[in-house]
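>> received
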Amino acid sequence: IKIWNLMNRQCIRTVQAHSGFVRGLCSRFCGASFFSVGDDKTIKQWKMEGPSFEEQEEPIHTILGK
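>> returned
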């Protein structure tokens, strides 16, 4: 998943969200987080802001499918 600054036309963040293809994205109305759905049969919630310099990118929540 790539997060873009559309004003500058620059990719500002890349999230390695799923093993396989990402099939859907949805952002929360408040803009604080977004959800991704992948071929790995998971739904993941992510913070809209990226991690700080020393933090590793981790989802807030992960829902596993069958």
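>> The mean pLDDT is 92.
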